[in-house]
Amino acid sequence: MKKVILSVTNDLVTDSRVHKVALTLQKMSFQVLVVGRKLPKSKKLDPRPYKTRRMKLFFRKGPLFYAEYNLRLFLFLRVRKADIFLANDLDSLLANYLSSVLKGKPLVYDSHEFFTEVPELLDRPVKRAIWQRIERAILPKLKNAYTVSESIAASYREKYGTPFKVVRNLPHREELIIVPHEKSLATDNRKIILYQGALNIGRGLEYAIKAMQYLDDARLLIAGDGDITLPLKRLAADLDLADRVSFLGKIPLEEMKFITAQADLGLSIEEDLGLSYRFALPNKLFDYIQQQVPVLVSNLPEMKKIVDDYQIGMILESHDPQQMAAQFHVALFNWKLREKWYNNLPLAAHDLCWEHEEQVLFEIFEKLQ
């Protein structure tokens, strides 16, 4: 069996994309090892059917973290037998590229986003220039690469001439979940608005929290963690919204679906901050759809197309909190609209699943077997 080593900078607990890719590669009879990192607060990793390794690093963020991670990863890959290297995102690409060249083994690149266009880099020209230099140096040399949306793939093709394919971040197809009593959310008969995913700049969460000031009959659940977790919690506290806004923290993959299934509305309300967000197709959007939850999404091309094509929710008109609250209310209580969305969601859930999307991975990796 040929061995594939997948590497990523997160702690693997909530990374559904890397997990799905690993399962697909196992299905193709590859031996799989997934490498990530372990933080002091990292949760225990659920048993996986493939091997995992989480490295403990001295630095936790910033340039020194990325330098330490890539050095440690490079040294790890140098002594491990591997037939294929799979780098997840630009922040793991350098170590994988050097290992691929030195060992003469194929490299596959999975770009989860338009990395150099993320909001966190747009106002940091020096850091952005460093990542752009790494991108310019390596991407034109890649033969096997894929990303999460056609818009990002087209941008990479035009910029570097690299033949990027598209593997959207779709969930596995599932039957509708029956939520056991012990996993039921205490809602006080209020509607549940759900955001699941990273808590980072530009996700629209500040506006969603402020919007909850104008809604008495709903709760906002925020599942995830990230760079702005503490500011968001302070904002909710300052607005005295403890009864309307709840922070659930990071939820393991197998547990998250029980929460998603109980939501009445799923949010994916990113701001138009750079090409990475403009062309985004977040996995949370498809997780909502798979559990047949109506959605409210930003007026950005890739997300808007999904919602318009399947008629399964609303397009956000404004990030103004009062206007957002008004849309929340319509999306939650307009029964005619909701009936249409619920009628359309089963087809969307059937079409937008990993079982269809993984065919692209078959095409990429079959020629490397």
Structural class: alpha/beta
Strands ordered across the widest β-sheet: 3-2-1-4-5-6-7
In round numbers, the mean pLDDT is: 94
Name the assembly state.
Answer: single chain
Helix content: 40-55%
Rg calculated over all Cα atoms = 21 Å
Which segments are poorly predicted (pLDDT under 50) over 5 or more consecutive residues? none
Distance between the termini: 9 Å
Strand content: 15-25%
Biggest sheet descriptor: 7 strands, parallel
Alpha plus pi helix count: 16
* Number of E-state strands: 13
Write down the overall geometry: globular
Order of helices and strands: EHEEHEHEHHEHEEHEHEHEHHEHEHHHH
Task: Give the topology.
Layout: E1 3-7, H1 16-27, E2 31-38, E3 51-56, H2 62-79, E4 84-88, H3 93-103, E5 107-111, H4 119-122, H5 125-138, E6 145-147, H6 150-160, E7 164-166, E8 191-196, H7 205-211, E9 218-223, H8 229-238, E10 245-249, H9 253-260, E11 265-268, H10 275-278, H11 283-290, E12 295-297, H12 301-310, E13 313-315, H13 321-333, H14 335-351, H15 354-357, H16 359-366
Parallel strand pairs: 1-2, 1-4, 2-3, 4-5, 5-6, 6-7, 8-9, 8-11, 9-10, 11-12, 12-13
Helix pairs in contact: 2-3, 7-13
Polypeptide structure, described:
This protein is of the alpha/beta class and 369 residues long. Helices cover 43% and strands 17% of the residues. It is built from 16 helices and 13 strands. The strands form 2 sheets. The chain has a 7-stranded parallel β-sheet with strand order 3-2-1-4-5-6-7, sandwiched between helices. Strands 10-9-8-11-12-13 form a 6-stranded parallel β-sheet, with helices on both faces. Helix 7 links the parallel strand 8 (191-196) and strand 9. Helix 2 (62-79) runs parallel beside helix 3 (93-103) and helix 7 (205-211) packs across helix 13 (321-333). It is globular and about 60 Å long. It starts with a strand and ends with a helix.
